[in-house]
Amino acid sequence: MTSSHPSDAQAVSASSSARDAALHDVGATKPVLANPLTEKDETVRSPDLETREYRLQARDVCVFYGEKQALFDVSLDVPEKAVTSLIGPSGCGKTTFLRCINRMNDTIEGCRVTGKITLDGEDIYDPSLDVVELRSRVGMVFQKPNPFPKSIYENVAYGPRIHGLARSRTEMDEIVEASLKRAGLWSEVKDRLRESGTGLSGGQQQRLCIARAIAVSPEVILMDEPCSALDPIATAVIEELIDELRAHYTIIIVTHSMQQAARVSQKTAFFHLGKLIEEGPTEVIMQTPRHKKTQDYITGRIG
Amino acid sequence: MTSFIVAALLLILLGLSYSQGYLGGRALAATGVRLHSRPRYHGILVAIWCLLPAILVLGAWALLGPGLMRAFVMSYLPPDVQELGPHQLNAAIRRVEAIASGYGVAGAMEPWETAAGVALRRMREFAFLVVIASAAGLGILGLLFARRRISPRLRARNSVEWLIRLLLLACSVVAVMTTLGIVVSLFNEAIQFFTFVHPFDFFFGTVWNPGFSTTGTAAIGQYGLLPLLWGTVMVAGIAMLVAVPIGLFTAIYLSQYASGRLRAVAKPVIEVLAGIPTIVYGFFALVTVGPYLSRVGSVLGIGINATSALTAGLVMGIMIIPFVSSLSDDIMRQVPRSLRDGSLGLGATPSETIRRVLLPAALPGIVGALLLAVSRAIGETMIVVLAAGNSPVLRFNPAEPVSTITVTIVNQLTGDSDFSGPQSLVAFALGLTLFMITLVLNMVALYIVRRFREQYE
Ligand SMILES: Nc1ncnc2c1ncn2[C@@H]1O[C@H](COP(=O)(O)OP(=O)(O)OP(=O)(O)O)[C@@H](O)[C@H]1O
Ligand SMILES: [Mg+2]
After folding, report:
1. pLDDT reading at A41 higher than 90
2. Ligand 1, atom 8, residue with closest C-alpha
């Protein structure tokens, strides 16, 4: 999968390399234009376009499944009120990294996380931290749709009910309706809210899970390939939703589609074999990647 | 010896026919034509064609042989013996058979007995040869016939598939027929019992006092089911009160909280509870738990009998803990991990996740496990024999001795060999009642499962 049309890419890359050069002239350490592709070992970082608040910071995160190491020294800053996309070939550790952020890896026996991840400056692996509260602040949409074997209504109402977000039935109805609408599912299910969520099609289930996650209004939303089972129209609805959520929330999305990463995200991180290879503003990663592996991946040569 | 020969014959036929079919199929394939079925299937089909007739012949002999042999022996019996009653006639025939088998018999042998024995032995040998020969002959015929049929277009695979289906069907028919047979025979005997005692007196009677068969038919006693039924319900109920919470919570702990290593140790240890012979539990109840309970009772100022519904129920509850815990644990672990993750990911605590997602999803299976435990409790005999006090009196205090249906069945069938009196026949009526109870429990459980099922994939 290539990022965009070849001629397109060249045109944009010309302008952004100029900007890149300007940036690096200030530092004046490396002649970037002369040798744009590196294969160096540590992560290649491009400075972010605007300086945003970093809501979430990961430092030297390593993850082990038993003896096997799945992530190697990943350090990543996730900007607030923006979308960060994680890309990379299958099995490179995107899901693993995502699950570190709301400590879902705790539920996997034999999984060990080292390093430091902070949310608003607070270490989320601190023993005194309440994991349950963390997870209510950091919501997650899983790679595989996993609706509960309950009615569609109950699926969406599950989170708000647990956290006591609705004081009355009508309030709950409103939350459910609003969440389903934002996930683009309302029109399809409004007449069958009492039917089982598992009776929906794969794509509908995925949107149901998105509705379920946003129903508790988390501050950070982790989405693991939320559009993998969706048609272009439903994908557009979800991308619109992500765009809209961006105004208030911090979003991290895993995607296998370069176009989607380019469309929805402001920052992109490229993983390969458990290592964070390159990260930076999406346009930079897409158009002037500086690491050879990144370029190979976004032009479809690996992955 | 004979069974060895039969087995050898069948094995030889199997090997021969399969290889014939297989080789036939392969030879055809080697000529380059495309076969509908792989040679393997041709082999199996030929083997079936060969073994089926052979097995039918042997089966027919197994069914009809004894009758034929009996008729043969009868023809050798002198007329005065033939006119004896069925008991003595059977004994005479058995003597002849023993002589024929070469086991020898007690007492002196009459000349006609020896003659009949020798003749029977010859007849047996002859018949065996005939049967083996005809089985082998028919088998070979079947083999030749099936071997000739092999052709590229022969749908051997479909035929084999069809036969396998037939075989599976036959097996399930056996299971169903056995159940039906048991029910029918229970019914028959129970109906006989009801010619002595009116069903109303049985099902609604509150006094159990069957008397003894030796006291004569004049005093047939009283057969009120209610004291026994109540005893059964009370003991099983107490057992479930112990087993359900402990078992279910154990299962939840093991499946959701315990580490893999702890689980690997704890689960087998708990399962040992189910492996302890029930007589040992009964012993334990009688010697340890009962006296302990009665001491506790006297300290608290309430009279607790050492042998009582409470003692039996408590110990039985311990016995069925693993039925509940082990099965529920397996069932809860089968709930997909992703459901648990989904709930935890929304900020639910582990116990909220268990209550709201895991238990509902696992409910049908858990109900099944509980049902199994209840049937086990209702059918349990040994513990109750020893620890419940065997007192078939309608009492509502669990600290008093009771008796149950199973214990009474044991009492009525032991020490009393006359199976035609109401004292013994009542056992069948009781058995039928037990059967009905489990049937109703099953139906209730099915209803619950259907009503509350939450589908997951
Ligand atoms: N529960 C687990 N136990 C052991 N190894 C695991 C587990 N989950 C993931 N891994 C391993 O960790 C590595 C990273 O997996 P991860 O699921 O993070 O990949 P991914 O980037 O999300 O891939 P995909 O795009 O296919 O979803 C893989 O090699 C995988 O085999
Ligand atoms: Mg993944």
Report:
1. no
2. A96
A302 pLDDT above the threshold of 70: no
Percent of chain B at pLDDT > 70 equals 96
DSSP symbol at B250:
H
**Is the confidence at residue B211, as pLDDT, over 80?**
no
For position B372, what pLDDT does the model report? Answer: 82
Residue A51 is predicted with a pLDDT of 55
- What range does the domain containing A133 cover? 8-298
Q: Does A202 touch chain B (CB under 8 A)?
A: no
Flag whether A36 is in a domain.
Answer: yes
Specify the DSSP class assigned to residue B431.
H
Q: Is B221-456 CATH 3.40.50.2000?
A: no
Domains of chain A: total: 1
Under a CB-based contact definition with an 8 Å cutoff, are residues A286 and A258 in contact?
A: yes
Instruction: Give A262 Cα–ligand 1 centroid separation in angstroms.
Output: 24
pTM: 0.73
Q: A83-87 and B208-209: which strand pairing?
A: unpaired
Report helix, strand or coil for B243: helix
Q: By mean pLDDT, which of A87-91, B89-93, B179-183 is the weakest?
A: B89-93
CB contact under 8 A, A212 and B346: yes
Domain with CATH 1.10.3720.10 in chain B: 221-456
DSSP code string of B12-60: HHHHHHHHHHHHHHHHHHHTTPPPSS-HHHHHHHHHHHHHHHHHHHHHH
Angle at A255 between CA A251 and CA A256, to 5 degrees: 170
Give me the CATH number covering residue A113: 3.40.50.300
The position carrying tokens 């205090």 is: B397
Mean of the pLDDT values across residues A103-116?
A: 91
The protein residue with its alpha carbon nearest to ligand 1, atom 24, reads A90
Preferred mutation among A105, A133, A135 to probe B, highest tally of B CBs within 10 A: A135
Cα–ligand 2 centroid distance for A85 (angstroms): 13
Residue A303 is assigned to a structural domain of this protein: no
Which distant-in-sequence residues (6+ apart) come within 8 Å of A132 by Cβ?
Answer: B347, B348, B349
List, as ranges, residues with CB under 5 A of the ion ligand 2.
A 95, 143
Task: Indicate whether A235 belongs to any domain.
Answer: yes
Which band of pLDDT confidence, cut at 50, 70 and 90, is reported for residue A46? Answer: confident
Q: How confident is the model at residue A48 (pLDDT cuts 50, 70, 90)?
A: low
Sign of CA dihedral A31, A35, A36, A42: negative
* Ligand minimally distant from the alpha carbon of residue A275: 1
| Least reliable range by pLDDT among A167-176, B153-162, B175-184 | B153-162
- Give the Cα separation of B114 and B124 in Å (integer): 15
**A266 part of a folded domain:** yes
Q: Rounded CA gap, B325 and B338, in Å?
A: 23
Q: Per CB distance under 8 Å, which residues of B are interface residues toward A? A: 259-260, 336, 338-349, 352, 356-357, 360-361, 454-457
Q: Look up residue A147 and give its amino acid.
A: P
Ligand 1 shell residues, CB under 6 Å: A 65, 70, 88, 90-96, 108, 143
Q: Is the pLDDT of residue A50 over 60?
A: no
- Mutation target among A102, A111, A158, A252 for the B interface, most CBs of B within 10 A: A158
User: b/e for A270-290, b at 16 or more Cβ within 10 A?
Assistant: bbbebbbbbbbbbbbbbbbbb
Average pLDDT, chain B: 87
B130-149 pLDDT, tens digit per residue, is: 999 999 999 999 999 988 88
